[in-house]
Amino acid sequence: MKICVLNLSGNVGKSTLAVHLLAAYAPGARIVSVESVNATAANDVQGLDVEALSASRFKEIFREIMMGDNVIVDVGASNVAAFMTEMKRFKSAVGEFDLVLVPTVPADKQQRDTIATIDWLHDLGLDAHKVRVVFNQYASDALDPVDIVYAQVVGYAAAGGREKAVFEPHAVIDRNEVYELAKETGQFVRELAGSTTDWKAARGEAKRAGDMDALERAMSAQMTQDLARTAHDNLTRVHALIFADHSATEPAPAGRKHA
Fold it and tell me: Do residues 161 and 197 lie in contact, with contact meaning Cβ atoms separated by under 8 Å?
């Protein structure tokens, strides 16, 4: 698939989702990071195929998209305006994407920019079923439901936004500090979650040896793994939701019908 992660705003977690929600579930995917100022989170993960290009080199970006079968385009905030301008000039580019994810977060400005991003994609002619809103950085321990935390975006959906993007069922990524911890290890969250190290045994060994540094590392690693497992369960549910929803809206191949 060819997927773009896009929002007019920065600080909505585009690169984090490109890595841990998309690339982690698509081995061999190529990430095209449209960025010229900030480093992409993809650079923190070992073994990822990442090509960094600024929007000023849009023809090269377009070639990467056309040539690839499994491409994730992560558009950084410093390049999004230029990227959008080029998408207007190269009108067929938007049709190359199978899916565009628009992450949003609770902050008011980011919600307003999310709405503007969806309007812009609609004006470009992108089919609504290809645009998926992801409700990112939700505080799962909060008492307020998604409809309240992201009230501007949800209200926009109810006022006609559903004709431009997919909002429901809500694809919600919970806030979790493991995404920052993953940068230190150079691993996907799913790799951290799947570690087979017996940290309880490691703690016992460190205690017997009187090695307090090793004990601290083992305790820290155990807590990181717990957070990673929680995040991985969340990511897996959202990934299945997004792609099941997308598949369900695609036309069936010739000679076949959806059940």
Answer: no
- pLDDT at site 175: 96
Q: What is the DSSP string of 98-152?
A: SEEEEEE-SSHHHHHHHHHHHHHHHHHT--GGGEEEEEEEE-TTSSS-HHHHTHH
Q: Residues 166-179: pLDDT tens digits?
A: 999 999 999 999 99
How many residues in total does the chain contain? 259
Cα gap 10→106, rounded to integer Å = 13
Which tokens hold the place of 169? 């069922």
pTM of the model: 0.89
Distance CA 201, CA 209 (A): 12
CB-side neighbour CA atoms (13 Å) of 65: 25
Q: Which residues are CB-neighbours of 158 under 8 A, at least 6 positions away?
A: none
Beta bridge partners of 132: 101, 166
Q: How far apart are CA 68 and CA 59, in angstroms?
A: 14
Compute the distance between CA of residue 104 and CA of residue 92 in angstroms, rounded to an integer.
26
Q: What amino acid is encoded at 35 in this protein?
A: E
pLDDT per residue as tens digits for the range 138-188 = 998 888 999 999 999 999 999 999 999 999 999 999 999 999 999 888 899
CA dihedral 88, 92, 97, 103 (to 10 degrees): 10
83/103 Cα distance (integer angstroms): 17
For residue 43, pLDDT over 70 is answered with no
